[in-house]
UniProtKB/TrEMBL annotation:
It comes from the Eukaryota. Residues 1-45 are annotated as: Disordered. Residues 172-278 form the Fe2OG dioxygenase domain. It comes from Ciona savignyi (Pacific transparent sea squirt). InterPro entries: AlkB-like (IPR027450), AlkB-like_sf (IPR037151), ALKBH3 (IPR032854), Oxoglu/Fe-dep_dioxygenase_dom (IPR005123). GO terms for biological process: DNA alkylation repair. This is Fe2OG dioxygenase domain-containing protein. One of its GO terms (molecular function) is dioxygenase activity. GO terms for cellular component: mitochondrion; nucleoplasm. Residues 1-12, 25-45 have a biased composition (Polar residues). PROSITE patterns: FE2OG_OXY (PS51471). Its cofactor is Fe(2+). It holds the Pfam family 2OG-FeII_Oxy_2.
């Protein structure tokens, strides 16, 4: 366990000021944790359907074709696939927070969350996760050989972010896995968030603060062997400082995602992944 030794800072800011009113200065006003927050109140963006090469496509001469990577950078709702499981939908807001708000939120979470490094038993008894995490929920959560124990003690800013997301997008997020990527060597491997405790078609809301990291997805709906993985349709989304990414519909069934290692200079990044947990039967 590695607790963060930095001192607690006072949570302040103007991000929750009602729209249409003059935003108070950060130095004099505490956060207003109510539903009138102005950030993220933009209308639902336009819809753009990302289509193209089918997964593991076979050319007429039986030569397999590696699909070209799809890059998503623009704000909008992107329907990335349609299968028998339903529509896989990505909603991306690269400027969900103003930069000044994103700056102090990043510093607050970096300093006040009790980060720890877990052992990933999936890779062996001494294999440490290549990132730090913190779990907030009334429920425990098991994934990839790791068990996150229930922790109902939410940091105040995290409560405000959760409640605002629920109001804006009509979800009932009640759990949060927070991640701290210390540099470009920290990462998370290919996976889906499709545990039974998350429900049938789990929505995931991902907020990013700090340095930009690439978020990658690959379609697995037609994968039958490891050889097929080289021919999967792939998507890359640079998750910027103050951005929001929503994965909805069949995304967790038909796509895997990861944050790969990057071997050039990357600074710290905080990533908040909100989810809906259901009590085990």
């Amino acid at each position: 366990m590695s607790a963060n030794p930095r001192k607690s800072s006072r949570v302040q800011g103007s991000w929750a000021a009602p729209s249409g009113k003059q935003r108070p200065t950060k130095s004099s006003t505490n956060i207003n944790y109510n539903s009138s927050a102005s950030w993220g109140s933009q209308q639902e963006p336009r819809t753009s359907v990302e289509s193209g090469v089918k997964l593991c496509a076979i050319a007429p001469n039986d030569v397999r074709v590696v699909p070209k990577e799809i890059l998503i950078q623009n704000e909008g709702e992107h329907v990335i696939s349609e299968t028998s499981n339903g529509s896989s939908i990505i909603k991306f807001y690269p400027n969900f927070f103003e930069k000044s708000d994103a700056n102090w939120m990043f510093e607050t979470l970096l300093n006040e969350v009790q980060w720890r490094q877990n052992t990933n038993l999936k890779y062996g008894p001494d294999a440490l996760e290549p990132r730090l995490t913190a779990w907030f929920s009334d429920y425990s959560y098991s994934y990839s050989g790791i068990v996150q124990q229930a922790n109902p003690h939410w940091q105040p800013l995290l409560v405000a972010l959760r409640d605002r997301l629920n109001k804006l997008h009509n979800y009932k997020f009640n759990s949060l896995l927070a991640n701290l990527y210390r540099d470009g060597h920290d990462s998370v491997d290919w996976h889906t968030d499709a545990e039974a405790a998350l429900g049938k078609s789990p929505p995931i809301a991902s907020i990013s603060f700090g340095d930009t990291r690439n978020f990658e997805l690959r379609e697995i709906s037609e994968v039958k062997s490891d050889d097929d993985l080289a021919y999967c349709r792939r998507i890359r989304i640079p998750l910027t400082h103050g951005s929001l990414l929503l994965m909805t519909g069949a995304t967790q069934h038909d796509w895997q995602h990861r944050v790969p290692k990057e071997y050039h200079d990357r600074k710290e990044r905080v990533n908040l992944t909100f989810r809906v947990m259901f009590p085990s039967s």
